[in-house]
Amino acid sequence: MFQKLVSRNEDLDRLVKKGYAVAFDTNCLIVRDVPYLDEAGAGQMGAIVAKLVFVDQEVVKQDDHQILFAGGIPFGLDGKPIPNLGGGPITFPLSEACTDVVVQRSFSNKPKDTGKFSDFYSKIESYVQVISGPAITRDGVTALTFRAVAGVVPHSVFKVNDTMTSRAGIADLASRFDDDVVALIGLGGTGSYLLDLLVKTPVKEIRGYDHDGYYVHNAFRSPGRLAIEELGKSKAMVYRDRYENFRSGLAIQTKFIDAMCPEELDGVTFAFVCVDKGASRAGIIDLLLSKGIPFVDVGMGLKRGPNGLNGMLRTTYFSQGDGTRVRDSGLVELVDRPDDIYHDNIQISELNALNACLAVLRFKQTRGFYAEERSYSHFIFNVGDIAICGLPDDRAI
Q: Which parts of the chain register pLDDT below 50?
């Protein structure tokens, strides 16, 4: 990453050649060895962090005129904080490769003449002059240490840079999925939207299973483009081709999962069940429970009435320790009945997408990515009144 960015971006190359201690991490430019004076007048070393916006895989531009700073408040020779730096205290976690750089604050100092910097070279030069000026003047120190730190950038499952995560400063939260192997059983309406969301989540591996073909009705309740040549192919082939250029660790098979194929789920850390028949669901649930795999099961029941479509979406979480109790609660249909609310099989794309969102949100709560003020095992979304009702884990089922 270091050599590619430096070779493709003239401003970064100029920083390295001038002698700045340049490094890159989680889509950020880092300049270490930035001297400054602290409140007591003692010399300190800090680091500048600036976000990279990727134009393509190797060409970058600035996010804005601001920087992040790993260090305390810089002071001048008069013993007062350096003026016109703006910003304030902030945290911005970097990867484990840069644990020595702990961001503590942001600074905002625009060029007076243009209001923005022309490139990263002018940006770093300007901020170093402001922050390090007093220390350079008094102690003769320099930020030009010629210490280029190539570093070890953590491996990413994505084939494009995850600039969204780095810009939001949530790389530490996203890393909580690094060891997850997720199984997605069923790639119908809700399952296809689940796949679309999971592909963009940095889990180590996604295993998808569906034995059906991809037809016109599937195109109306699945995300993304439609290529006419996809029609009639297996869903597994369609979705594998659609997403393989986005990430690695994607294994989608034309396969029916039941109690007779436990080896398919070896190593799985979480699963999603998206099937519309109770008997099939029962076998899959028993298999997952026997292997100790936590999972979310989803369902949808819509009927047409005098005022339009009405019904519900269901999202049920089976934890590793409480899954059997949830299964035995009767919250999930485990048999096929002629009068089942799912019998009409009316499905609408926006409700499939909402069901998928609720399922992924619950999964991400279990990993600490989203806050969880109270743990819920069962959600019902009622279409008619646009309301979500939840059953907490600590309430008797």
A: 341-342, 396
